[in-house]
Design a protein that fits this description.
The complex is a heterotrimer. Chain A is α/β, with parallel strands linked by helices. Chain A has 2 domains: 200 residues, D-Maltodextrin-Binding Protein, domain 2 (3-Layer(aba) Sandwich); 168 residues, D-Maltodextrin-Binding Protein, domain 2, CATH 3.40.190. In chain A, 46% of the residues lie in helices and 14% in strands. The longest helix of chain A is centred in the N-terminal third of the chain and has 19 residues. Chain B has 2 domains: 33 residues, no CATH class; 234 residues, MetI-like (MetI-like fold). Chain B is built from 12 helices and no strands. The radius of gyration of chain B is 23 Å and the shape is flat. The two termini of chain B are 40 Å apart. Classes of the chains: A alpha/beta, B mainly alpha, C mainly alpha. Chains in contact: A-B, A-C, B-C. Chain A: Keywords: Signal.
Amino acid sequence: MFKKILALFLTLGLLTAPLAGCRQTASLSPDKELLQADFSQIQKEARGQTVAIYMWGGDESVNRYMDEWVAPRVEKELGIKLKRVPINDAREMINKLLTEKEAGKTKGSIDIMWINGENFKLAKDNDLLWGPFVDKLPNYNRYIDGEDYQIKYDFGEDTEGLEAPWGKAQFVFIYDSNKIASPPDTVEALKAWIKDNPGRFTYPAPPDFTGSAFIRQILAGVSSNYDRYLTASLDRESLETEITPLWDYLNQIKPYLWQKGITYPENIAKLNELYAQGEVYMTMSYNPNYADNMIKQGRFPATTRTFVLKNGSLANTHYLAIPFNAPHKAGAMAVIDYLLSFEAQLAKFDPANWGDGLAISLAKLSPEEKEKLKQIKPGKAALSPEELEKYKLPELSGAYVDIIEEGWFNHVAKN
Amino acid sequence: MWPKIKPYILILPALLTTITLFLGGIFGGIIRSLSAGKPGEISFYAYAQIFSSQDFWASFLFTLRYAALSVLIASFLGLAIVFGLFYVRMEINSRLSLFLQRLLQLPMLFPFLVAAYIIFILLSPHGWLARLLFKLNLAGENSFPLLVNDPFGWGIIIAYVFKTCPFIILMLYPVILKIPKAWLEAGKVLGISQAGFFRKAVFPLLIPPLKTASFIVFAYTFLAFEIPYILGITYPKAIAVYAYQLYTSGSLSDRPLALAIIITSLLLIAMISCLVHIITRRWGKTIKPGGKENGFQTV
Amino acid sequence: MVSRLFKLLIPVFLTGMVLLNIIPLLLLIFLSLGSSWMWPHLFPGPISLSSWKYVINPAAGSLPALKTSLQIALTATLINLILAMPAAKSLAHYHFKGRKACELILLLPALIPPWAVITGIHKTFIYLNLTDTMSGVILAHLLPTLPYMVRALTISFASIDYSLEEQAYLLGGNKSQTFFYITLPQLLPGIAAGSILSVLISLSEYLTTLIIGGGQVLTLTLVMFPFVNGGNPSIGAAYSLLFALMALITLFSLDTFINRYYSENKLY
């Protein structure tokens, strides 16, 4: 009997193996035609499609903006059904696409993905993206300054029209003004504060997006020549050695962190919960309006405020891209174009919805549009746009992000 | 001819399904774990990496510790509860016993991730228990011990005990149902107490299903993902979390590593289980259970 | 003396254990009904239904997810029944060469969390266009559930009273009549046990659904994950309760359905 089973199992193995070969034929022309087509033609084709947008689903206000503001309008105005697929981490999409590419699957399931930084670099390096498509979008051409460094380069990587900017974010610290009278304003002052208040500070462990950003934020503060990291020129070893001051800083604060640094919250949501419970006195966010959103939801104390470090505050742009095997590319283009419209950007900018920074350029707005924009005031916990602008720093090269995250594990977490 | 092949025909659909999915999966996993080198070549690179990696062994020992401890605790607790239920059935009311058994099955309604969540809200440093002790002036604001996301894995252990104990009870309780009251009466006549009766007559019957149940729980716990993901620590990670993060690291070259970790863990679990089986083989051999089959019986 | 101590201790111990099972449930209920749960309050602040409103809100997608969860669990269970019924009969009634090996193979998958095995045939699923589809997820869910069904039915088959079947034949019943009126009712407890375990395991599955469903097949477990893993605690609690409620109602209706069938077809 056992032999029979073995034989059966081998046959099965043989049966499935050749399938790998015969599925590789790619469908070709229609996608290329799409890049040449007139936009009204694209919109016509998009009508009736169901577009799946994959995005990190951990923020209630982002989800609500998509589900309650965008989806009904897209359906009404473009005849497209928008399906938001929540994921835990943008890396999941890259993985899925990599597996599909390896298996030769030409019709995937992701139409639009929300990415930036190291994930964009991975996608670009592995040819996971379709395009370039951005210059086909009327709203891109009308509102976006494609030559702006912060738009053209995503974590130092040339976007080459493979992803359309959707919004801008900046790294801020969040604190309770009831517990901290004047927050620290430099990385050194932050260290001193952490030492004076043992157990009241921590940061999410990478690969959490915000935790990883915090580490880069500290790097910007402790390194004398930060601009050097904007483009990737160092290999893994030299980078890890060169940024020793970063590991030293993080190891010096470690014994004074929450739970003495034995463990770290594994995502930003957990850190926010620790803050909400009053276990720690600070949290952080890559959305300057996040604190206001949380106050409104009644989850953060009303005395919550934000601050940035004078050493500089990291800023990035986040983008929308179309995978190589997106089943509804026309629909994806139409939706992305809609998301770049003034109305959609304005609603996204409004802290009542999401409070995300504008991807569209102020210089390209009409006087009426500028007037509308002025009506929207930042929340009381948020810093003024001028204050944020003053300390703005670009993100370092996407190629370094993974190296720094792994380095953190070996140099900091394991100690 | 027909009677001879009939059993094979009957079992074939289920067997084929299992072979395709299960053995196919393991086989595929082995193949991919050996594909770290050039395409089409077998390479043991991934295994060499794993065996020499300090991170892997740290994860392995961490996982082994919480899996072994949680199965031990859950087994003892399950046994104690079954004894209590036996006592209630024999001495008080068999319906009450059944009702209590059902209540104790409550955690089976929750998935693993909710079990982890429940333990988190109960036992985190500012969780419910910490608040209760604080209100009762038994603990200060920051003196509650770290029981979740802790280096030892207490949170993981408690969550697994909470979730798997009902399963062990489910496997043991049918044995209790099979024991006629007359036996106990007979024992009483002979002057044997309930505890003595349980130890001498019931306990041996419980050993085989208990061994099966704890084996299932141990092997399953070892590679289960949700609970250590939510209640684990930054370093070392549980094997399942470590392997899954490598599998989804965004780099195809990490996949053979992830699969090698899974395959290695499966082999090590099998070895450990064999060892434990050999050591405990003598137990429970004294009396064979009345029916030849135990466990999974409906109640 | 010792037995008197026992008499006192056993109820105390059992009550304690039952309480340990019930307290978390009560806590989840309280938590789901508050909006904020600030230290050091034992119970959340002002009572509010906002978390439940968020969970029930169509945009959050919980109800379609609930439907997907049930569809997957029930279909997988039905397939399990069809596959396991003949297999269990074979294992329980026939002594054939390789029986032990077959039984071992059938039960083995219960030992390993399915995601660890699924990663090995992930690529095959992609070739066969099974990823991102409900059928793929159902197929993957057979892996951890089938062993339990086989086991439960094997026990049932082993305990069947065959004199009844013979009597039915003697009285002129045909094969299918005998099966439906005599054999099936005797199997029902096993069917119930197997189905309940199969449904529970399928509903709870997280990682396998994520890997094979690729985020397109959204079950309740997937939708609730971010909230349980550090998000808004009261939404997490509401989702947990919604899940338990779904499981409870399904199991209860399964039980009632099977019991009713049982009493309707009781011939003896």
